[in-house]
């Protein structure tokens, strides 16, 4: 169970981008977070895995308060949070196997990780997961030789190698074509149920959110203003979440997170 209470995030002296946000995600549920660009969706995910430091409030994962952790305790907690990225975040020159094994870094002594001498059980687990998502035959291929959908499957396996207690996906399909997007959403939904994992997906494509997730959380200006089943997301709710956003930009627009990542490359 993920339990977020009164979460506030402020970048520097700017006004808060998350404003006293409350959210509970029980096990095994697939929740999508939608909202206009700048609503605070990525910041929320980044606060959960502490890529950014919350300004105040609490984030509890299965009874562990994450916001207060530091040093080793933080590292241990972080390895329980799997993250899937829009741009995949793979190391191109490494093989698929090497990339997925990087999900075990939080568990291995440094010498073992540096020399890439992975324990047999980690190799077995990697093959099992790669077979599950259909990429086992690519184990020894370089990551940059794969298609976008295959790369995202590597990203998913890497996250699962962490034995996570929750999976966070930050626009996992935004770099993919529609058919591949559906396959990845289908996969995330299936894995949530097979592995009894809560999955939190930040997503721009509202149609995919409706089709593949059981619960939709709508954000606006750092607040949750909708929280319900896909069937409850009617036109009024959509208009409130996306007020002021042109219709053609509501779906599939490039996110500011993506643009920032591209600019940083
Ligand atoms: N590292 C940062 N430093 C300063 N401001 C930031 C930073 N990251 C995000 N912001 C600001 O916080 C606000 C929320 O951004 P965030 O990326 O969380 O929104 P989002 O809903 O995920 O948007 P998008 O869908 O476009 O990615 C925006 O105004 C953004 O400019």
UniProtKB/TrEMBL annotation:
Keywords: ATP-binding, Cell membrane, Membrane, Nucleotide-binding, Translocase, Transport. PROSITE patterns: ABC_TRANSPORTER_1, ABC_TRANSPORTER_2. CDD domains: ABC_PhnC_transporter. InterPro entries: AAA+_ATPase, ABC_transporter-like_ATP-bd, ABC_transporter-like_CS, ABC_transpr_PhnC, MetN_ABC_transporter-like, P-loop_NTPase. Residues 2-246 form the ABC transporter domain. One of its GO terms (molecular function) is ATP binding. Signal peptide: none annotated. It comes from the Bacteria. This is Phosphonate ABC transporter ATP-binding protein. The lineage of its organism: Bacteria, Pseudomonadati, Pseudomonadota, Alphaproteobacteria, Rhodospirillales. The gene is phnC.
